[in-house]
UniProtKB/TrEMBL annotation:
Transmembrane segments: none annotated. PROSITE patterns: HTH_GNTR. This is DNA-binding GntR family transcriptional regulator. It comes from the Bacteria. Keywords: DNA-binding, Transcription, Transcription regulation. One of its GO terms (molecular function) is DNA binding. One of its GO terms (biological process) is negative regulation of DNA-templated transcription.
Length: 279
């Protein structure tokens, strides 16, 4: 009973502070009252206050700076990822790099790992379901990490059913897949098309590796945009995952934000609407 009462007390404190932050009583960058002040205000012990603060840290609302106190986290400027209804770019293709540079992106971790990576892998449970293949089925995996000019990062993964790309290991053919940004999608559409597209948006907490690669803090949620390429028989040919910090990116749909949903956004229009990536 005593443990339950203690938990209820720290939850009460966390709820009160959370509401104060959301309603703007504590603005981004401002300090929360000290542990001693909060303990006196709520008639609890300092360890109970610490439990409440730990919960707010995990939620991504505050940071604790040793020797200084607890501060409301600043709200980063959010960039927009546009889900298009026009021609879908193969954002995992190395040949797409000149296009992303024009919109303020660059390849991340140039000095630490290859900027683009591709290999064969086996379908885990998640990918087996996503692509409608058996567990352990051979897949073509392409990966890259992008960095925006404000230091925000996105991680790109593409997984394709290897049965649909039998010439992947051919050296000359593989060079075309790498150099020409539309070549892989055009080849798949020619041999298995016409293609249809399905895009899902989800969020979850990141793994330790994802959090480190994307410079995320504890408590930040991970935004995942998963786009499926589906052939005329309903078979899922390829899936592209875009992973980004949810506190730095949001999504928009071209059908909803464009005056003419059949027109392409110009670079100027993208800049005006804060759009930094089209998928």
């Amino acid at each position: 009973m005593e443990a339950d009462e203690k938990e209820a007390r720290w939850r009460t404190i966390a709820t009160a502070l959370r509401n104060d932050i959301i309603e703007g009583r504590y603005t981004p960058g401002s300090p929360l009252p000290s542990e001693i002040t909060l303990a006196e205000q709520f008639s609890v012990s300092r360890p109970t206050v610490r439990d409440a603060i730990k919960n707010l840290v995990l939620e991504g609302l505050v940071n604790v700076i040793r020797g200084r106190g607890t501060f409301v986290r600043p709200l980063p400027e959010r960039q927009v990822i546009l889900i298009t209804n026009q021609e879908r770019p193969d954002v995992a293709a190395p040949g797409y790099h000149p296009d992303i540079v024009r919109y303020g992106w660059d390849l991340g971790l140039r000095d630490q790992e290859p900027p683009f990576f591709s290999d064969r892998t086996q379908a885990n449970r998640d990918l087996a379901i996503a692509l409608g293949v058996r567990l352990g089925h051979s897949l073509i995996h392409r990966e890259s990490l992008w960095t925006f000019e404000n230091h925000a990062k996105v991680e790109i993964h593409s997984y394709a059913n290897a049965d649909m790309i039998p010439d992947w290991d051919d050296q000359k053919r593989n060079a075309q897949y790498r150099k020409r940004p539309k070549f892989l999608y055009q080849t798949l559409a020619r041999e298995h098309g016409p293609m249809e597209w399905m895009t899902l948006v989800m969020a979850r907490m990141p793994s330790d590796n994802e959090r480190i690669r994307l410079n995320m803090q504890v408590g930040d949620a991970l935004l995942i945009i998963r786009r499926h390429m589906v052939d005329r028989h309903g078979r899922r040919i390829e899936v592209t995952d875009v992973k980004a910090p949810a506190n730095q990116f949001e999504i928009a749909y071209a059908l909803e934000v464009a005056d003419d949903p059949n027109a392409l956004f110009t670079r100027e229009e993208m800049a005006e609407n804060g759009i930094t990536l089209v998928i």
